[in-house]
């Protein structure tokens, strides 16, 4: 308990310190180094998780996967005498490079904060769903290349890699349609409308074709479904983040409307953050949508919050904005990991359990 409080206190101190000294090159190097240390320290040496046996089945060729890149990487490592652990580490290596690269494009001085917050809520999915999250990092790099750096070749390469890594990433690419849509006045409303159209279309398709699409049947099994009440409870906190991002953007636009409209990075992060709205109705019933298409975008939300500090025109406003962010992090942490225990008696401490299972040497930090 004491060590946990110490870690939280150090995190808060570093967040404020790196923001104050963000123009110092040494600060940028230290922040990135800590981000790398945290990411690989927690994920790189894992040798067991809930999906480990399934991946070993794919690796050993007892079952086939539709994801070409995972099969190709597995064959390369297997043919050279390596086991599945090497394949897992290779995926984590790619993930870390991708996430740290993405975070550093917007808030180099606070890479560590973006990575830390992301792992705080995404540690379990990242360690389990390695194929999808490699695809997700490629997706982030691909659309960043297209929209921000205007590099179509880089976009094409990483977009192809993302789809080859996991076909489910295709549901993220319609974001480009919304981003380039000429009429931006009803941007948020379009997301809400499309979210219900998408939900209706999805359920209609799977109601008639689920039996012939055996690959997706597991997502409709009892343990993968949520009741409406359970879905609302699980998704509410992430919806609260979306509301906060909308509020933050509105407040910034009051003073910097012309500037933020021309700021490609700002528009990219803000619009990509809100893309998660499309998946909220589906997330009320299917957990996989909440994990892959809402919570996965948390790294974008945090990146947007830190990048938007560029528009806080005084030290007092920046301090207030960071404080609001930290309060929301604390609320989310309590909501996700402790509130379920008090409401329905179900443990919400899966993060702790997975950390202990994956990294026994870190137990003392969680006591």
Structure description:
This protein is mostly helical and 367 residues long. It has a domain at 129-167. The protein has 19 helices and no strands. Mean pLDDT is 85; it is low at 212-216 and 360-367.
At a glance:
This protein has helices at 2-20, 25-43, 52-59, 68-79, 84-104, 111-128, 130-147, 152-165, 175-180, 187-209, 228-262, 264-274, 280-283, 287-294, 298-307, 315-337, 339-344, 350-358, 363-366.
How many β strands by DSSP? 0
* Parts with pLDDT < 50 across at least 5 consecutive residues: 212-216, 360-367
The major β-sheet equals: none
- Helix content class: over 70%
Shape: globular
List key phrases describing it.
367 residues; mainly alpha; 73% helix; disordered C terminus
SSE layout and pairing:
Blueprint: H1 2-20, H2 25-43, H3 52-59, H4 68-79, H5 84-104, H6 111-128, H7 130-147, H8 152-165, H9 175-180, H10 187-209, H11 228-262, H12 264-274, H13 280-283, H14 287-294, H15 298-307, H16 315-337, H17 339-344, H18 350-358, H19 363-366
Helix pairs in contact: 2-5, 2-6, 5-6, 5-7, 6-15, 6-18, 7-8, 11-12, 11-16, 12-15
